[in-house]
Amino acid sequence: MARDPPRPHRPGRAEAPLRRQVVTVAADGANSLVQSVDWAAIAPPTITAVVALVVLVADLFVADRRKPLLGVVAIAGLVVSMAALLPLRDGDRSTFCLTDNPGVCSYTADQFTLVIQFLVLGGALLTALLSLRDTRDKLPAGEFWFLLLSSAAGAALLPASRDLATLVVALEVASLPAFALVGLKRGDRFSSEAALKFFLSSVAATAVTLLGVSFVYAATGTLHLTQVAAGLEDVPGQLDTLAKAGVALTLVGFAFKTAAVPFHFWVPDTYVGAPLPIAGYLSVVGKAVGFTGLILVTVIAFPGYADIWGPAMAVLAALTMTAGNVAALRQSASRTWSAVRLLAWSSVAQAGYLLVPIAAAAYSSDHQIGATVAYALMYAVVNLGAFAVAAVVARTRPLNRISDYRGLYARRPLVALAMGFFLLCLAGLPPGIVGLFAKVTVFSAAVDAGLGWLAVVMGVNVVIALYYYLQWTAILFRAPEPATADEEAETAAEDTRKGIPAPVTVAVALTAAVGVVLSGYPQLVLRFAAESLF
């Protein structure tokens, strides 16, 4: 049977010029398989992974009283990984490229990669600060730090992945340790249940993703994203249905990871059952992983099928923000419900906002993706700050109910002011200017793409969210109820006696300071909304 000639490679916009790429040439002029590796480009995830292994091995030899040193090593490793991003600021560095086509690479450190890696490693660093005290008292130190760093390494690798195989591997390296982190509270039934739900939903998402990737490979004969895009433009008629099914299944798999409706059912119970810092980690880094994967496959690999995934993303965005806000509104009506559960539903609603620019990219231009990146940076700072304050409250109020925040200003004025600021940023109200501008940027992306109906749905949801964000903010500054005055006095005395651990104080202060700076100079993150990231 005659075979069709191989399709010529069509370089896409996402292909960056190579640097430090060396391919050895044999005597007969044929390219060999030996090539140099740009170690500087792959340094951030590599350093994180190496430190994870160092911590795991060191845990075997370090005495119990010196276990806190493992946390210090982990934090230092994350700081060094973030510092490794500085030499890459010019971007456009690639490695692990095809020897017969150096323009097609598996790892690219462009501007998009560096921004997401900064978000991931920064989120992991704040999670580590919040976890230092827990690893001394409640959690096994060695296992915890190894799992956290391993997950962060996978999450940092994912935005640089430019082929479907590397993308799936990075996704699993980020996800598998997270299962264990959620269930690391030994003997806690809720923690085990949360880990099981998270595991089952994530395994199902991975299976669907792998099935979709296999269909795409069968239809195009390649796994590199830019070559997939070129191959999907010229799919033989008998493979067209297979290609469409592959695109749809791949997107469904990533929708699980982003907690988009109807794949969000695991979020509330997982956040409540997980250790509090890990809940914050999942709400920021876990979402960054899912949205990064969605952006890479839609904008780079599947642009030719924008007429399929564009409407799907728009509908998912509308459903996700609506379901999240309605559930959070119901949650806020009962003061005895968990504040962490309310933050969980809020994160589902925020995921809907993050989906809007991805949907808009199908109708206008890829520049809309910058709005998702800008919004993700704002959300990461203030949401981790909210979880840091929740960690402060949980020291004396382990149930962490919404009613436990009543009178927080009387007990800890600075912490209450920080929490109020974080909630106003999430609501998009002054003085949280960065939250307001980020929402306007996302709203504008929908309008510019001609998705007026989606902009209307977003506007209605923003108004709905104002109710529970402002209600929670008001609770912070109310006086304690008379019936609980003695309890408040006892709690205040216990607060004074225990104090706030220094790492938690640093986490609250750092997130609040960054939030204030971004509110004063929102262009630091909003500039990404006006730039091409690929």
TrEMBL record:
<feature type="transmembrane region" description="Helical">
    <location>
        <begin position="279"/>
        <end position="302"/>
    </location>
</feature>
<dbReference type="Pfam" id="PF00361">
    <property type="entry name" value="Proton_antipo_M"/>
</dbReference>
<feature type="transmembrane region" description="Helical">
    <location>
        <begin position="342"/>
        <end position="363"/>
    </location>
</feature>
<feature type="transmembrane region" description="Helical">
    <location>
        <begin position="69"/>
        <end position="88"/>
    </location>
</feature>
<feature type="transmembrane region" description="Helical">
    <location>
        <begin position="144"/>
        <end position="161"/>
    </location>
</feature>
<keyword id="KW-1003">Cell membrane</keyword>
<keyword id="KW-0812">Transmembrane</keyword>
<feature type="domain" description="NADH:quinone oxidoreductase/Mrp antiporter transmembrane">
    <location>
        <begin position="161"/>
        <end position="464"/>
    </location>
</feature>
<feature type="transmembrane region" description="Helical">
    <location>
        <begin position="450"/>
        <end position="470"/>
    </location>
</feature>
<comment type="function">
    <text>NDH-1 shuttles electrons from NADH, via FMN and iron-sulfur (Fe-S) centers, to quinones in the respiratory chain. The immediate electron acceptor for the enzyme in this species is believed to be a menaquinone. Couples the redox reaction to proton translocation (for every two electrons transferred, four hydrogen ions are translocated across the cytoplasmic membrane), and thus conserves the redox energy in a proton gradient.</text>
</comment>
<feature type="transmembrane region" description="Helical">
    <location>
        <begin position="414"/>
        <end position="438"/>
    </location>
</feature>
<dbReference type="GO" id="GO:0042773">
    <property type="term" value="P:ATP synthesis coupled electron transport"/>
</dbReference>
<keyword id="KW-1278">Translocase</keyword>
<keyword id="KW-0813">Transport</keyword>
<dbReference type="GO" id="GO:0005886">
    <property type="term" value="C:plasma membrane"/>
</dbReference>
<keyword id="KW-0520">NAD</keyword>
<feature type="transmembrane region" description="Helical">
    <location>
        <begin position="112"/>
        <end position="132"/>
    </location>
</feature>
<dbReference type="GO" id="GO:0012505">
    <property type="term" value="C:endomembrane system"/>
</dbReference>
<dbReference type="GO" id="GO:0050136">
    <property type="term" value="F:NADH dehydrogenase (quinone) (non-electrogenic) activity"/>
</dbReference>
<feature type="transmembrane region" description="Helical">
    <location>
        <begin position="39"/>
        <end position="62"/>
    </location>
</feature>
<protein>
    <recommendedName>
        <fullName>NADH-quinone oxidoreductase subunit N</fullName>
        <ecNumber>7.1.1.-</ecNumber>
    </recommendedName>
</protein>
<keyword id="KW-0874">Quinone</keyword>
<comment type="subunit">
    <text>NDH-1 is composed of 14 different subunits. Subunits NuoA, H, J, K, L, M, N constitute the membrane sector of the complex.</text>
</comment>
<dbReference type="GO" id="GO:0048038">
    <property type="term" value="F:quinone binding"/>
</dbReference>
<comment type="similarity">
    <text>Belongs to the complex I subunit 2 family.</text>
</comment>
<feature type="transmembrane region" description="Helical">
    <location>
        <begin position="167"/>
        <end position="184"/>
    </location>
</feature>
<feature type="transmembrane region" description="Helical">
    <location>
        <begin position="369"/>
        <end position="393"/>
    </location>
</feature>
<keyword id="KW-0472">Membrane</keyword>
<feature type="transmembrane region" description="Helical">
    <location>
        <begin position="196"/>
        <end position="218"/>
    </location>
</feature>
<dbReference type="InterPro" id="IPR001750">
    <property type="entry name" value="ND/Mrp_TM"/>
</dbReference>
<keyword id="KW-1133">Transmembrane helix</keyword>
<dbReference type="InterPro" id="IPR010096">
    <property type="entry name" value="NADH-Q_OxRdtase_suN/2"/>
</dbReference>
<feature type="transmembrane region" description="Helical">
    <location>
        <begin position="308"/>
        <end position="330"/>
    </location>
</feature>
<dbReference type="GO" id="GO:0008137">
    <property type="term" value="F:NADH dehydrogenase (ubiquinone) activity"/>
</dbReference>
<feature type="transmembrane region" description="Helical">
    <location>
        <begin position="245"/>
        <end position="267"/>
    </location>
</feature>
